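Intended use. Records like the one below are meant for learning the mapping from a protein sequence to its folded structure. Do not use them to infer anything beyond what is encoded.
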Amino acid sequence: MNSTSKMFNVILFAMLIFSIQACNTTPRQNQETVDEPEMNESAVPEQEIEKAICVLHPTEGNEVRGTVTFTRNGSTINVVAELEGLTPGMHGFHIHEKGDCSASDATSAGGHFNPDDSQHGGPDDEERHVGDLGNIEAGEDGSARLELEDSVISFSGENSIIGRAVVVHAGEDDLTSQPTGDAGGRLACGVIGVAE
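Structure written out for the chain above:
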């Protein structure tokens, strides 16, 4: 083999080695180019909930139904309840811990929503359950409307009411008896969900 052939073979061999190295490194370089940078979840702001709604359905043997809307108003939540089918007078009106109204008597909704293990009270009391919204009063025609501003309930964090239940009771909440205000049976129940 002459020197020209040897030189040609060396060049050919070098080109082959270079091609193999290029094939091995190109996909890695492409992969690095294609990969998107990791997103820091805390850098993406969570969209704030502005409104929630609860549709109340009667428990077995009752006729109470209606809606409750919850709307953010600065640092408070505006609560508006419109009900029908009640007996005239006062009825306990609470947010309960579980968003489960499947039991015929709504006991599946658990007790009052009380994440900090406080004593039962009224909506304006310093110590109360988060879910203590007091009473709603029905007129002679069985309809009732309640509007209040509450600074304890929330749409996020420990006091979030999203996915929990609203329960309307048969009797008046005396706002003092523990742990439920002696408000009697459950006439209607509905789960709180995010609204448009």
